[in-house]
Amino acid sequence: MRAGRGVGHGKVLLFGEHAVVYGHPAIALAVDRCTEVTLTPIDGPTHVRSEHADPRVREAICRVLPDHGHQVEVETRLPVGRGMGSSAALAVALVRARADLERTSLGPSECYGAAMPIERAFHGNPSGVDVAVSAWGGCLWFRPGPPPERERLEPGEWQIVVLDSERTGNTAELVAQVAARRPSVDPVLERIGALTTQARAALRDPEALGELMSENQALLSQLGVCTPELNALVELARGAGALGAKLSGAGGGGIVISLVRDPGPVLSAAEQAGVPAFGCLPWVA
Ligand code: MEV
């Protein structure tokens, strides 16, 4: 029997992380980095080969596959645990690989439905934005359901440069940390939601979008999910001329995204400072 293959793309959150867990909207961009899963039928116990030793990878896979009969290979070009949606990308790749093995094809809605239980194995109570953007691709407006609100947006003439703090953040812990600070942080979550709505209208105006991104960063600092390292990366990007910069994902480590017209200056500033950085191209399904 032939192997089944599936791909899931990562993402950056342009606006709305954490607030989206409480029903506010978020804007996410699917990126050209992805995870690929190959499922090969074997005689014997299901066996996982992955470069990443995270025990949750195995646990997530066991939610979908029987104990016997598969060799699972996971390869990824996404930094893991950095807020780039690596668990959602794995979940989407896995359900697509299973469908491919069974010679069926999954539309984005079916893919979203099948991948969400796997994402829950990683994060407990995810909003679903990471899985949605991996399933549908592009620049996505998302508000959790039921049913989730989802709309494809048209980004303007700007690019994203990612700066990697090289530290992992634990999404489930950070979400729990914010939950423990409610209801006193509810006005901050609401302001993030309002800002995301403003950002949607400013998507084709890079200067205005950059300003809103930096405001979103200030609100994330108020939520307590930023770190001195992430603040330093925001400063580095702004100092190199980025129009805006913010942490992206749950925070506590992970990445900073910066909005630029030309990636060159931020990439050279990062290189001089010894910070891993790369430009992200959008992925459109
Ligand atoms: C998602 O990448 C980040 C959070 O908003 C959690 C979620 O939406 O499930 C913090």
The gist of it:
This protein is an alpha+beta fold. It is built from 9 helices and 10 strands.
Could you explain the architecture of this structure?
This protein is an alpha+beta fold and 285 residues long. Helix content is 41%, strand content 27%. It is built from 9 helices and 10 strands. The protein has helices at 55-64, 86-101, 108-123, 129-136, 171-180, 186-201, 206-223, 228-239, 264-273; strands at residues 4-15, 26-45, 47-50, 68-76, 139-143, 149-153, 159-164, 244-248, 255-260, 277-280. The strands form 2 sheets. Strands 1, 2, 3, 4, 5 and 6 form a 6-stranded mixed sheet that branches. β8 and β9 (255-260) form a beta hairpin. α1 crosses α3 (108-123), α2 (86-101) packs across α4 and α3 (108-123) runs antiparallel to α4 (129-136). The longest helix has 18 residues, at 206-223. The radius of gyration is 18 Å and the shape is globular. The relative contact order is 0.18. The model has no long low-confidence stretch (mean pLDDT 94). The structure holds (R)-mevalonate (MEV). (R)-mevalonate binds next to α4 and α5. (R)-mevalonate is lined by residues 13, 17-18, 20-21, 83, 123, 126-127, 129-130, 171, 175, 249-250.
